[in-house]
Amino acid sequence: GANLLTVKVGTGGKVRLYNYSGNTHVVVDVMGYYHSNSSTATTKYGGYAGLEPTRILDTRDTNDPLPRDFYLTTGADLGPEANSHVKAFAVNITVTKPTGIGYLTAWNGDENAIPNTSTLNFTKNRTVPNMAVVPTLACGSFCTDPDTPTIGILNTSSGSAHVVVDLVGVYDDNTLDGSWRYRSLNSPTRIVNTKTKQGIPAAIGANKTVTVSTPSAVTTFNTMSLVTNTTANKPTITSVLTLWNADIARPGVSNLNPYAGQLVSNMTFTDLGAAYDFKVHNLAGSTNLVIDVAGTMEAYPAVAD
User: Fold this and answer.
1) Sign of the alpha-carbon dihedral angle for 167, 169, 171, 177
2) Among 22-31, 39-48, 121-130, 188-197, whose mean pLDDT is lowest?
């Protein structure tokens, strides 16, 4: 299994990994990093802006699964004022109905620079999502606006697979107004645990929506979004979970696709409403939920000098 994580670094840029039981091999791929407010960097950094979660690709719409060892490109036209300044997407990528075992790699789509990393791993016939921060590349002559940012997704597996991509935010080149900055918490902070009635008083039922008010210990006046690890804890049947800003209608996207009895996590970028709240919807059955906050996106923090 794979999971995108945002981890505060210690002295020398080090992090620690702890395994609860048994033995396991571990693979760590570094996707990028956030500057602190004391950074002296003057170039090659930018801010983050949350978007209303939007599905930008679903190969099921045309019943055209991605074949083994092939890649596709997808993008989002954000308008001429923004397109050329977008440098990365925050996306939730889901593989569904794979006919074999393997992995997907998401990258900027340059066929001459495909990385040797994996974005999500899957087995036959399983639906698996994973959050990803993916550098973009300008679309070029294939798009009405050549500056339209795009990404590539490669299927390295023993069969074909349907691919779904939900766009939740973008990173810019420190040019666009209103971009947010990442603020790391001293340590991951749990704000929801339905088993202990923390944040949500009970397991979430079928086709139910609950609202979560983020504790003031986690937010500041300028907090716009939470960077979290969200865990579905043994749903009674296979389900779909969606998290979103409490001030808007539920978007047609997904964050987790847990199977019955499965304990599964996924990173989420969850924008907050005016009351620092967000909503969670559970499609089917009943499931317990745990949400741990690694950090927040802030509207007006101190920026790098």
Assistant:
1) positive
2) 39-48
Residue 17 burial by CB count (10 A; 0-12/13-18/19+): exposed, middle or buried? exposed
- The residue type at 282: N
Reported as a single tens digit per residue, the pLDDT across 181-218 is: 999 998 899 999 999 999 999 999 999 999 999 999 99
Radius of gyration of the chain (CA): 19
Residues 6+ apart with CB under 8 A from 13: none
pTM: 0.94
**Residue among 130, 131, 165 at smallest CA distance from 149:** 165
- Residue 305: pLDDT over 50: no
What count of other Cβ atoms lies within 10 Å of the Cβ of residue 18? 4
- Round to whole Å and give the CA distance between 281 and 275: 18
Which of 139, 41, 55 lies closest to 94, judged by CA? Answer: 55
Q: φ and ψ at 149, to 5 degrees?
A: -75, 135
Count of other CB atoms within 10 angstroms of residue 252: 11
